[in-house]
Amino acid sequence: MIMGMSFGRGVLFHDRNVLACAEVKDGVIHTWAEKMTLKTIGKLWYRIFFSFPWYYQLFHLLLAGYVAAALVNPGWAVVDPMWVAVYVGGFHFVFPKMMKKFHGAEHKVFSYPGKKSLAALPQIAKADIVNAGCSTNLVVWFFTGFLLSVWFLPLAGSIACGVGGLLVGMFGDRYVRKYCGVLYKLSAFFQKHFTTKEPDRLHLETAIRSYMLFEHIREVERQRSA
C-alpha cells in the first residue's frame, strides 16, 4: 500500500520497502529515494521536525521544557502538562501554511485517477483535495473519544479514551467507516478547510516528482524480481 506524508519543504511517498522524497531547497526541487530502514525513518523525521518555521520549533522546545520541568517538580506546573498531548493530537489543525499546501498537493496526486506526470499537472491541480485515507481521520477519532469523556473523566483518562478512539479508527477502519460515516464526513470538512490549502505549482510539481520517483523505483524492483 502506498502512503504519503507532507512536511514543510516537500512530500514523500512510501511503502514497506522504499521511500521516495521530493523537497524544495532554495526554490529548487531535489529528489532522493532509499530503501526503508531505521536510518531512512530517522532521516524522514529529521526533515519533518526541522522543516517547521523557527517560531514553531521554539514553541515546541518550550513545551518540551515545560513538560520536563513538571515531571521534575509537579509544583512548577501551572496547567496540567497532559494538555501537551492534546495539542500533539490536534497538531493537524495548526500546520504551518507551507505544510498545508504540500499536504493539499499530496492529496491531489492521490485523488487524480490517471498516470501521475508533470504533463498532467493542470488536471492534477483540479483533483479533489480531500483524501479518504488521510490521517485527519485518526485525529477526528482521537477527539471523538477525548471529547466524549473529558466531561466526566480526569484528563489522563480522557486522553486514554482519545487514544482508544484513534486505535479504533486505525485498526477498525474497514468496519467503522460503514457505521460512522458522519465522522469521515467531518474529517473531509476539516481536510478541506483546515488541514490543507490549495497548492501552488511548486507544491504540485514537488508532489508529482516524489510520486513519479516512487513509481519508477517500484517498477525497477518489479523487473528485477520478474
From TrEMBL:
Q: What is the superkingdom listed in this entry's lineage?
A: Bacteria
Q: Does the keyword Acyltransferase apply?
A: no
Which InterPro entries did the record assign? DUF1385 (IPR010787)
Which keywords annotate this record?
Answer: Membrane, Transmembrane, Transmembrane helix
Enumerate the transmembrane spans.
44-69, 75-95, 124-144, 150-171
The protein here is known as DUF1385 domain-containing protein
